[in-house]
Amino acid sequence: MNVHDSHRADDRHRALERVMQQHRLRPDSLIEILHAAQRQFGWLDRDVLGLIAARLRLPPSLVYGVASFYHAFRLEPPGRHRCTVCTGTSCHLKGGSRLLQQLEQHFGIACGATAPDGSLTLENVRCLGACGLAPLIVIDDEACPHASFGPVVERLTASLDGEDTSP
Amino acid sequence: MPRLTLTINNRSVSARRGESILSAARRSGSDIPTLCNLGGLIPAGACRVCLVEVAGYPRPVPACATRAEQGMVVTTDTERLTAARRMIVELLLAERNHSCAVCVMNQHCQLQDLAARLGIDHVRFAFISPLAGVDISHERFGIDHNRCILCRRCVRVCDEIEGAHTWDVDGRGAASRIICDLAQPWGTSATCTGCGKCVQACPTGALFEKDAPTKKATIDMERLSEWRRSRK
Amino acid sequence: MKTPEPKNEKPTVCGGGLKISVCLGSPCLASGAEGVLRALREAWGEKPIAVIGTGCMGPCSRGPMIRIERDGYPTAYYERMTPQAACTTVAAYLAGAAPEQGRLAPDFPFIALQTRVVLEQCGRIDPCDLNSARAAGGYRALAHAIGKMTPEQICCEIGASGLRGRGGGGYPTGTKWELVRAASGRRKYVVANGDEGDPGAFMDRTLMESDPHRLLEGMAIAGYAVGARDGFIFVRGEYPLAAQRLGAAIVDAGKAGLLGRNILGSGFSFRIRLRIGAGAFVCGEETALMASVMGRRGQPVIRPPYPAQRGLWGSSTLINNVETFGCIAPIIRNGAAWFRSVGTPGNSGTKVFSISGDVATEGVLEVPLGTPLRELLAMAGGVSGGSFKAAQTGGASGGCIPASHMDVPVDYESLKGLGTIMGSGGLIVMNDQRCMTDVARFFMHFCQDESCGKCAPCRTGTQQAARLLDRIAAGEATSDDISQLEQLCRFMRETSLCGLGMAAPTPVLSTLRWFREEYENHVRDRRCPAGVCAMEGTPCRD
C-alpha cells in the first residue's frame, strides 16, 4: 500500500481530533492534548498549536505559552536519533555533565540542539530517577547505564551510519 | 461596608475588608513603591518591590497581594526592605539592556524613577546584555524586549481588560519573553485589536507608540480605570 | 451498610514451592530485567514454578534483582542477573542447591534492616495485577474506612497518628485533611503530588511503579474523609512506566468496584484521573501544580489563599505527596497508636529515602524517622571511593550534612537545625573526591533552568548567582564575589515568591556554612582542592 505523506498527516490530524473529543474540548486538558499532538507529529509546529487553540477556544498565545513553558514539548523538529544525557545530582557527580560536554564537542551540537542534517538531537534531562545507574544516557528510548564517552560515541555513530546505508 | 483597623508605620489606618495593604497604606500617606502592580489589574505579587514587613510573619509579604487584616502591624520602609528593593532594581537593570538615553520613556519610566528614588547610582552585578530583539512589525506600536522587565502588565491588561489575550509569555526563567499569539510578529497578529492598552500599561519603554519616539505619554491611569469600569 | 470484604483469590506460591520474583522497576528494566523474566518464563513456563514480575526490591544499583522463595528455605536475593545466570541459578535450586554466585548475604543490611510500611508490598506483589495487591491486603483499609468509620473519625485518626507531609514541608497531614473536610463548597478535589522533581529523588517513582494500588487506596480514603469525589494524580513526565502502571491500576480498580461510582456498594463515589507532567520542577510547588493540572503554565501564585481554601477550579483541594498517601492504608489498618510507635515523638512513622552517589549500594531505603544518618550510610554499605565528606538532602532545595554531624537523627527538625531539609527524601552521599562549590554550582544552574521566571528575585537572582559560581569554578572570582553571592542568596531566600526561589540558595548557603574553606581555596589560591573544577577561565555553560 502506498501511504502518501498527506494521508499520513490526515490520519494524524484525525487521531488528534479524536483525543480532543475524548477530552470534550475542555481547555483544562490542554497539556494532555499537547502530549497527544506531540506523540502524533513528533513535535509541535505552529499550525498544530494554532489548530489546538482554535478547537479548545483558547487564545493562541496562551497555547504557545504553555507549550514553551514545559521542557517536554518540542517546538523544533527533533533529529532522527536522540541522545538524552541525565544530569541529575548523581549523574553529575559521576561525570554526566562532563560527558554531555564531550558529546557536544564531538558532534558539534549544543545541548538542546539538532545537527543541521537532522540526524541527531542532543539533550539533557534533570534526573530520570534511576540514580543507581549513574551516569545514565538514553539513546532512542534505550537506556545505557553507567555510560562512558567511548562506547556512547561508538553506539551513536553506529546508529547514524546504519541510517546512511538503509534505503 | 465592614471596616477594620491596622497599623502602618506606627499610624492607625482604617481599611475596608478585603482591601490590600498597599491600598490602605497609600490612602494613609505611606507610599510603597511598586512595579508590576497596576490599579485595576489582579495583583501578581511578582516584582517583589512592594514587600512590607508584618509583625509576626516570618518573611516580608507583597503589599499589593496581601489583604489588610484587623490588628496587623505593618512597616513599609525598614533598612532591610530598602536593601531588598535596591537589590531587585539592580538585578532588573542588569538583566536586559536598559539604556535610558535612547529610550522613549526616558524621564517617564517607572523603573528609572524607582532607581532614582532608591538612590541607585551603580549596579553591583554583571550586566548580562542578552540580544533580546525588537519587533516593529505593527503599524502603530513596537516592542523592544531589551527594555522589558517581565512584569506582565501588558499580558494581564490584554487578558483581563481588553479580553483579547494577545500577549503571553514564551519559555520560562531567564529565557522568558513576552510573545504575541504564536510567537509571531505583532503586525501579523490575528487577535490584537490595536487598542494600545498594553502600551499604556508598560512601566518602561518596552512597549511604545511608533510615532512618538521620545514622548510616550505618562501612563494614563484614568483611562485604564475607565476601561475596566466599562468592561464590568 | 454492607461492607464486602476483599477476598483472597490467587495463591501466591504455586506447586513445587518455588517462587521467583524478578524486579521490574525501571532501573532494573534498564539493566535488562525483562530479558531475565522472559528467559525464566521460557525455561519454566510449564513447570511448577511461579515466575512473577514485581516492583522495586530496593538495591537499584545491583539490578537486575531476583528473589527466590522456597518452602523451608530462607528467602534469597540475587544481584546483577543475566538471563543465563538466572536460569542457571534456578536450575540449581530445582536440583536442591542454593548457589552462592550473585547471592546477597542473608543479613544484607540494605534489605534486612529496613522497616517497610509504605513500601511493604513493593517488590512482593505484581504491580500490574490487582489480585496480587488484594491478596496482600490491598484495599482492606478502604473497605474498613468507608464501611466502619465516619469522615471525622478518619481525619482524627490521621491526626492522632502524627503523620506529617512527606513531600518535604512536614505539615501535619491530619490538620490539612480536617481543613479540607471542614471547608464549604459542593466540589472538592484530592491531588497526589507525584512530580518528584528533585534530582536524586526516586521514592515516589518506586511506590507508583511497584504498588500503584497503595496510592489509589490512600487517595480514595482521603476522598471519603474530606468529601471529595474527584482525584488527580500528577505524575512526572519522566516516569512513563509509573504513569502506565497507574493508568492500568485505575482501570482495574474501577472494574473491581474499588474506584468510580458507588465504591464497594457504599454509595461513596470517587474517580481518579492521571495528569502527566511535561517537565517542570516548579510543578512540585502546590500552586504551580494546580495550574498545571488545569492546563496552564506551571507558575506559582501567592498563598494565601491556600489550596485547602481555594484550589482547583476555585474549590477546596487536598494536596499530598505520593508517599503521604502511601502511609494512609497502614494507619487505618493498624491504628494511629501503632504508627506513632514507629519513629520518634513528633516524627512518627517511617520515611523512604533514595540513597545514591558514593555508596556501595544505591537504591530505596525505608527506615523509622529519627534513624541516625550514620546508620543509613551503614545500611547502604558505607561510602565508596574515598572517605565520607557530605550527604546532600532535600535536592535542589536542601543542603549538606558534613562529616561532623553524621550522627544526626534524620527527622524534620534535626535536619532543619543543620540548615538543610528533609525534602522528599533524596539522599546523595559524597566522598572526598567531590568539590562542594561544584555541587553548589550544579544546583544553582538547575534552579536557574527551572525557575518559572515570574518573580524577579528568583529569575534574575539565580542567573547572577550561577554566574558568580561559574567565576568561582573558573578561578576568576575575588573574595568580594563570595560575599556578594552570600548577600544575593540571603536576599533570594527572603524575597522570592514561591518555595523554589526561597530554597534555591540553600545549597549555596549550606556549603558556605560547612565548607567555606573550599570556596576560599578556589578564590584565594585559584585551586580546586578536590580537582573537580577546571580553573581555566570561564567554563562552558550547559
Main interface by residue count: A-C, 41 and 59 residues
Adjacency order of strands in the biggest sheet of chain B: 2-1-5-3-4
Compute the average pLDDT of chain A: 91
Number of helices of chain A: 7
Instruction: Provide the gyration radius of chain B in Å.
Output: 18 Å
The percent of residues in helical segments of chain B reads 25-40%
Structural class of chain A: alpha+beta
What profile does the largest beta sheet of chain A have?
Answer: 4 strands, mixed
Under CATH at level 1, the class of the largest domain in chain A stands as Alpha Beta
Number of helices of chain B: 6
The tally of domains of chain A stands at: 2
User: Using DSSP, what is the number of strands of chain A?
Assistant: 4
Amount of beta strand of chain B? 15-25%
**Structural shape of chain A:** elongated
Q: What's the overall average pLDDT of chain B, rounded?
A: 92
Radius of gyration of chain A: 18 Å
Could you give the order of the helices and strands of chain B?
EEHEEEHHEEHEEHEH
Strand content of chain A: 5-15%
Unreliable residue stretches of chain B = none
Pfam families (chain C): 2Fe-2S_thioredx, Complex1_51K, NADH_4Fe-4S, SLBB
Protein name (chain C): NADH-quinone oxidoreductase subunit L
Organism (chain C): Oryzomonas japonica
GO molecular function (chain C): 4 iron, 4 sulfur cluster binding; FMN binding; metal ion binding; NADH dehydrogenase (ubiquinone) activity
Q: Layout of helices and strands, plus pairs?
A:
The complex is a heterotrimer of chains A (about 170), B (about 230) and C (about 550).
Chain A (H helix, E strand, L loop, with lengths): L4 H18 L7 H12 L4 H11 L3 H10 L11 E6 L2 H5 L2 H12 L12 E6 L11 E3 L2 E3 L4 H17 L2
Parallel strand pairs in A: 1-2
Antiparallel strand pairs in A: 1-3, 3-4
Chain B lengths: L2 E6 L2 E6 L4 H7 L23 E4 L6 E2 L10 E3 L3 H17 L14 H8 L16 E2 L5 E4 L8 H10 L4 E4 L6 E4 L16 H5 L5 E3 L11 H11 L1
Parallel strand pairs in B: 1-5
Antiparallel strand pairs in B: 1-2, 3-4, 3-5, 6-7, 7-10, 8-9
Chain C lengths: L17 E6 L2 H5 L2 H12 L4 E6 L11 E5 L5 E3 L4 H12 L14 H4 L17 H6 L4 H9 L2 H11 L11 H10 L5 E7 L8 H8 L1 H15 L3 E6 L4 H16 L15 E6 L9 H8 L22 E6 H13 L1 H6 L1 E2 L2 E2 L1 E8 L5 E6 L4 H7 L8 E6 L6 E3 L9 H6 L8 E6 L4 H15 L5 H18 L5 H17 L3 H5 L2 H19 L18
Parallel strand pairs in C: 1-2, 5-6, 5-8, 6-7, 11-15
Antiparallel strand pairs in C: 1-3, 3-4, 9-10, 11-12, 13-14, 13-15
Helix pairs in contact in C: 2-3, 6-10, 6-13, 7-8, 7-10, 9-10, 9-11, 10-13, 17-18, 17-21, 18-19, 19-21
